Amino acid sequence: MNSEPDRMRFIFSNLHEAVLVEDENRAVKYANEAFSRLFAPGVSPEQLVGADCDAAAVASAPMFVDAPGWLTRTRAIVAAQHSVQGDICVLADGRVLERDYFPRLVDGVVVEQMWVYRDTSVQSTESETGSDVNDQDSSYRGWEAAAEKLAQRIRLDGDSCQASVVLVKLLVLERVNSEFGYRAGDELISDVLSELRDLFGETYVERVRGATFAVVVQGQEPAEVFSRVRGRLDLSRPVGQQIMLLRYVLGAAHGSAASAAEIEALLGDAFTALSEAIVTFADVVCDEELRTRSGMRFDIEARLQPALESGEFELFFQPIKELTTMKVVGAESLIRWRHTERGFIPAAEFIPIIEKLGLAALVDRWVIDRACADLPRLADHGIMRVGINLSPQTFASGHDVLQLLLDAIARHGVAREQLVIEITETAVTANVARTVEVMRGLHEAGFEIAIDDFGVGASSLGLLKDLPFDYLKLDKSFIDDVEQERVQGLIKAMCVMAGILGGEVVAEGIEDLHQLEILRACGVQMGQGYYLGRPEPVTGRT
């Protein structure tokens, strides 16, 4: 067992999860029997080696309910080059798959990537853990089946029966399995299921997916159920060889539960709340706002790449002016999305979602390319320099940001001094070593750098003195309060500090003449805002 394929075969051959390993060219490097059975019945894993994975994904797409969405999401995950866990895919035959994606990067380049698929619609405790636990609950068919069971058992008080559906997801199962073995994980699932049934009654509790349990309670608000669950599960318990506290999250929905369809709808809402709870580590109850945000998140994820390719995104440019002469000295590029169905979506709504999905690097590449393409036309209107906002994910992702920029300016025939790379102060402090390294490389290559939203992050003078920058862009909060003498004193101090370190200050969000005059008096050299010019598409300039 000396070769790498032999080692992988030994590790993965007996797993129930379907495993696929791709090489740096997205060719199949290894697949196990479970993967072959799932996606290529009758074909041995050895026959899959060397196949083009993207072509195979296209061929496999019809297996899924939303084939275009699944294919788009798969390609977006690969492009983002970030680990993804728990992505849900629904097959046309009704099965539900959960998949994980793990890229391995060396010097910023993906050299290998692994996909793991689990069938969560038809599973047994034995298949997950390698042991028999509670024959009565040894199999389940996803949350739709759980809804049917709960609807059959629950005694309804009338057609308008109100109920709370609360989901409990354990966050420690993987750790328990790895540290103490699958039997310990199996026992933990069994213990939690028994405790919840003891607390609420066997009729009202089902295990719905992996380490997730559903509780349906009539006549109680979700907050009451949360309190009862925490009162039981927050107690220390023996797991393996240790005493430990459970880590778990709670999501809920409340409404009519007069039929299996309504309970299923409540379960769907509860899963939406659970997804939010996993991110926030807070108890979450689904409401209309969360449904809207969740729907937008899934829509953005599915439509992002087609939208970039079809022209739904565009760049607007807001002029930056020298405050004493009012001469235009540059512009900041700002992305906009004209959704074919939702209409105009403000960046403040979709950018945070894109970042949460780990797709910011994909969007940044588009912004860089479009800004470079628009620069010649901007020059016709006297704008010779453009600021490009890059997400902290792009700096931290391992992408070669410098090469990305050099390739773009070469394609479009623009000079590097025409681009100003903008990065927020909070992004710098989030990953100091990596970000400073990239910033220095960009600055040494001739790109100007602006530290955006300056003054609201956690930068210290000790860090700032080591950062290569040409511009400090004051956060809008300073301009909103610019009439305060203390704020004016801070702005004057920042102008002096920037000058000592070799940079200039740019004020963002200038909205009237009074603010402009105060900023001039404080020594601010440049500014932008609605008073100086609104963001416009380059084609709209006259």
Which SSEs are present, and which pair or pack?
Layout: H1 4-12, E1 18-23, E2 28-31, H2 33-39, H3 45-48, H4 53-60, H5 67-80, E3 84-90, E4 96-106, E5 109-119, E6 123-124, H6 125-129, E7 139-140, H7 142-153, E8 162-170, H8 173-180, H9 182-200, E9 205-209, E10 212-218, H10 222-233, E11 237-239, E12 242-244, E13 248-256, H11 260-280, E14 284-285, H12 288-310, E15 313-322, E16 328-339, E17 343-345, H13 347-356, H14 360-379, E18 386-389, H15 392-396, H16 401-412, E19 419-424, H17 425-430, H18 432-444, E20 448-454, H19 461-464, E21 471-474, H20 476-480, H21 485-500, E22 504-507, H22 513-522, E23 526-527, E24 536-537
Parallel strand pairs: 13-14, 16-18, 18-19, 19-20, 20-21, 21-22, 22-23
Antiparallel strand pairs: 1-2, 1-5, 3-4, 4-5, 6-7, 8-10, 8-13, 9-10, 11-12, 15-16, 15-23, 15-24, 16-17
Helix pairs in contact: 4-5, 5-12, 7-11, 8-9, 9-10, 14-16
